[in-house]
């Protein structure tokens, strides 16, 4: 079955750029969606179709996807960006969706 | 908007039952999903149902999961039978606008904490 691999944690200083990766076999051929989850809250969609932003999501959030790695990039990181981030794809072989293990973003 | 509810405390072997009501927007044309998160762990997709009642679920839970819909009430439901402590989690209902590559969850309920304990 398809597997998505995320680093458990990423740390970044305020104002810098955070990059969170999501690895999977030929993930570039799939559409990747990203969620932000703060403690005690439901996940919030921040990127869909690799790089599209829902309304209300700051332009600081962007995404890319190629080869075996998709990347969520957060520019000019703020303290409020500290959260868990999950990638998600549809696995057509098994006809279901799955999430990566999640990455905890810490703002130093 | 999605409003969910259901029993929060179950004993092992009982059946988990959750409901999710859809307010506003279009009930048809979307896929209605259930996702859960055990304490301290990541997100797990449980399954989905569409307007016509066609459902699909995570192979790891398939034998215990029933997801259904009542279009007259704009509601959909999750039943998970024979629960164990491993089913302790926060459960969310969510909307996905389409299947396949377009399957992303853009609207979520507030979540229901379910604890399985004897």
Structure description:
- The complex is a heterodimer of chains A (108) and B (118).
- Chain A has no helices and nine strands.
- Chain A has 108 residues and is mainly beta.
- The N and C termini of chain A lie far apart (36 Å).
- With 118 residues, chain B is an all-beta fold.
- Chain B has strands at residues 2-6, 9-10, 16-22, 31-37, 44-50, 55-57, 65-70, 75-80, 89-96, 107-108, 112-116.
- In chain B, strands 2, 4, 5, 6, 9, 10 and 11 form a seven-stranded mixed sheet that branches. A four-stranded antiparallel sheet of chain B has the order 1-3-8-7, with no helix packed on it.
- At the A-B interface, strand 3, strand 7 and strand 8 of A face strand 5 of B.
**Element order, helices and strands of chain A?**
EEEEEEEEE
Percentage of β-strand residues of chain B: over 45%
Number of helices of chain A: 0
Based on CA atoms alone, the radius of gyration of chain A comes out at 13 Å
Roughly what is the average pLDDT of chain B, rounded to an integer?
A: 95
Overall outline of chain A = globular
Number of strands of chain A: 9
Average pLDDT of chain A, to the nearest integer? Answer: 97
**Euclidean distance between termini CA atoms of chain A:** 36 Å
Oligomer: heterodimer
How much β-strand is present in the residues of chain A?
Answer: over 45%
Broad structural category of chain B: mainly beta
In helices, the fraction of residues of chain A equals under 10%
Q: Tally the helices of chain B: what do you get?
A: 0
Give the class of chain A from helix and strand content and strand pairing: mainly beta
Largest sheet of chain A, described in full?
A: 6 strands, mixed
Q: What shape does the CA trace of chain B take? A: globular
Uncertain segments of chain B: none
What percentage of residues of chain B falls in helices of 4 or more residues?
under 10%
- Rounded to the nearest angstrom, the distance between the terminal CA atoms of chain B is 34 Å
Helix-strand sequence of chain B: EEEEEEEEEEE
């Amino acid at each position: 079955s398809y597997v998505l691999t995320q680093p458990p944690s990423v740390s970044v200083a305020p104002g810098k750029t955070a990059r969170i990766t999501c690895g999977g076999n030929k993930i570039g051929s799939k559409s990747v969606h990203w969620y932000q989850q703060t403690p005690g809250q439901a996940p919030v969609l921040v990127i869909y179709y690799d790089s599209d932003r829902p309304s209300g999501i700051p332009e600081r959030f962007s995404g890319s996807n190629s080869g075996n790695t998709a990347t969520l990039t957060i520019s000019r990181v703020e303290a409020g960006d500290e959260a868990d981030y999950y990638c998600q794809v549809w696995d057509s072989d098994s006809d279901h969706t799955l999430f990566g293990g999640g990455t905890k973003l810490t703002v130093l | 908007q999605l409003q969910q509810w259901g029993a929060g405390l179950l004993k092992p072997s009982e059946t988990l039952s959750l409901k999710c009501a859809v307010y506003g927007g279009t009930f048809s044309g979307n896929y209605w999903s259930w996702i859960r998160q055990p304490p301290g762990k990541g997100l797990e997709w449980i399954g989905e149902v569409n307007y016509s009642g066609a459902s699909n679920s995570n192979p790891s839970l398939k034998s215990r999961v029933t997801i259904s819909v009542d279009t007259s009430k704009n509601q959909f439901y999750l039943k998970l039978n024979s629960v164990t402590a491993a089913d302790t989690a926060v459960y969310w209902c969510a909307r996905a606008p389409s299947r396949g590559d377009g399957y992303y969850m853009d609207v979520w309920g507030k979540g229901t904490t379910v604890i399985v304990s004897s």
